[in-house]
Automatic annotation (TrEMBL), chains A, B:
One of its GO terms (molecular function) is kinase activity. Gene3D superfamilies: Jelly Rolls (2.60.120.10). Residues 20-104 form the Cyclic nucleotide-binding domain. Pfam families: cNMP_binding. The keyword Lipid biosynthesis does not apply. The keyword RNA-binding does not apply. Keywords: Kinase, Transferase. This is cAMP-binding domain of CRP or a regulatory subunit of cAMP-dependent protein kinases. It comes from the Bacteria.
Amino acid sequence: MIIIMLMSLETLFAGSRSVYLAAGKVLFRSAAPVSEMFMVNAGQIHLCRHTVHGTKMVLQRATPGMVLAEASAYSDSYHCDAIAATDSIVQTLPKSVFLSALAADPDLAATWAATLARGVQAARFRSEIRSLPKVADRLDAWLGAGNPLPQKGRWQDVAHELSVTREALYRELARRRKGTKE
Amino acid sequence: MIIIMLMSLETLFAGSRSVYLAAGKVLFRSAAPVSEMFMVNAGQIHLCRHTVHGTKMVLQRATPGMVLAEASAYSDSYHCDAIAATDSIVQTLPKSVFLSALAADPDLAATWAATLARGVQAARFRSEIRSLPKVADRLDAWLGAGNPLPQKGRWQDVAHELSVTREALYRELARRRKGTKE
DNA sequence: TCCTTCATATGATCATAATCATGTTGATGA
DNA sequence: TCATCAACATGATTATGATCATATGAAGGA
């Protein structure tokens, strides 16, 4: 009897060590050597880079199920800081274990590559949306990509996703309601 | 004697069929089934999506060495159009061959994943840069990431990368020259 | 019920980039 | 040399979003 074990990224991290991080705690710092890979289990971890002026740029907002700083698997040291945005739990796996699991299991490697490829797609789409100068165009492009307008109470999230102020989005939505009414 | 054959993505595509595309020619259309993977050899291929209003969004500008629409390897049909921006040459490989090469060679799979991971990183960075409201901040972030200001004659490329008009970039550069002079 | 809080909503003002217009410079070729 | 072209440069004007200030409404807790 042959047991086929279909391994997903979640199951790979599932048996691993969990670490609890209070909001604001640092998981790793830029330039530190990469020895572990992290998957977010609960909460949210931000991957940040700082400019000379101290301006903070958030490059990834990792939510449950996401692997943090994917490119670190192929780098010796981190290029960003990772900080818990909320109280969080991350699961950690030695980088070497992570890489050998990928090398040993072509299906898992394909899953990983597919995840990354979709990540590239999503990030490219976000960067193109943000290059549109008008709020109306950003909203059109976002809705046109199949994203649904969420329930009231979650509109600010959309504003943030489109990188406009909530006021600007409220106004655009108001314009549309007015437009369809008459 | 053992010959170790280190396979790169380029070598994988190297022996494959080449296709010449005149500027403006369509390589594939959205919704078409994915049967081939493409690597750009010369020229530039744009991956485009169209909104309801007919606005065109360019999601990838694939230059030589880049694989086009990476995520299509894990999808049955395309979600974008691919159009030659200039006269171009692409090399094509059946998707099944591409995927089995990855499955058969863990090193190649790692190379592919590393490429994708860096693509994610780069695209995330671009989208964050474009969420900065001021030209000065975008330029700072871009220079701070280690990008050098190119020779005169290439400044427009930077303006495009930062998603600002060339005039806005010229003015910002002029401000800086003035600032450092006194 | 009342109070607090947060998301939505909208007006007023301001800052800034886009746009349009025009000029300058430098490289290339006839 | 002159014509041409493209990139750099900059001024004037306009469009648009950010910001600040409030207000409204709904949900949840004391």
